[in-house]
Amino acid sequence: MQKLNFPTSSTYDIANRDGCDLILDPLRQKYVVLTPEEWVRQNFVRYLIEGLGYPQGRTAIETGFVFQGMQCRADVLVYDTKGKALLMAECKAPEVKITQQVFDQIGRYNTVVQATYLIVTNGLQHYCCAIDRKNNSYRFIDTLPRYEDIVKKRE
């Protein structure tokens, strides 16, 4: 798979079954098809957990929710100590350009999820913004925040 713009992580458990590459997803505790988007998602989640201290037990992949009567899924959701959405990420394959449409998608999803931080990544480029509900605004931030830093702000 393509090298991505995340710090080097531990090895991945990759298998081939019936000519199909699979990767073990430790959060879902099962093998999933290793698509380019899944490769980005697995690398991103590892970076969150191993590099930024996000608890594995509060991190979920492909969490379903209903948006305007349609079933949708958040690629990655991280919850705070009270079970509220803290961070939501939208992962795209490396060849997918990060466009306004991608930001619009995660913004629409966040009208339901209500996460404080939104991240969009294709594994090569990462964008993170902090939502300020009091002032009905957002701001882009240069680096992804560590879990302990953003949980402290909420307490």
Structure write-up:
This protein has three helices and nine strands; from the N terminus they run βββαβββαβββα. Strands 4-5-6-7-8-9 form a six-stranded mixed β-sheet, with helices on both faces. A hairpin with a 4-residue loop joins strand 2 (about 20-25) and strand 3 (about 30-35). It has one domain (about 35-155): Alpha-Beta Complex (tt1808, chain A), CATH 3.90.1570. The longest helix is centred in the N-terminal third of the chain and has 17 residues, at about 35-50. It has about 160 residues and is an alpha+beta fold.
Summary keywords:
three-stranded antiparallel β-sheet; tt1808, chain A; alpha+beta; 155 residues; single chain; globular
Blueprint of the fold:
Elements: E1 14-17, E2 20-25, E3 30-33, H1 36-52, E4 59-67, E5 70-79, E6 85-91, H2 100-113, E7 117-121, E8 126-132, E9 137-141, H3 147-154
Parallel strand pairs: 6-7
Antiparallel strand pairs: 1-2, 2-3, 4-5, 5-6, 7-8, 8-9
Structure described in brief:
25% of the residues lie in helices and 37% in strands.
From the N-terminal CA to the C-terminal CA, the straight-line distance is 40 Å
CATH class: Alpha Beta
Helix amount: 25-40%
What's the CATH architecture name?
Alpha-Beta Complex
What count of domains describes the coordinates? 1
Instruction: Average the pLDDT over all residues and give the rounded result.
Output: 90
- How many distinct beta strands? 9
The helix/strand series, from N terminus to C terminus, equals EEEHEEEHEEEH
CATH level-3 fold name: tt1808, chain A
Q: Strand order of the main beta sheet, please?
A: 4-5-6-7-8-9
Largest sheet: 6 strands, mixed
How large a portion of the residues is in β-strands, by DSSP E? 35-45%
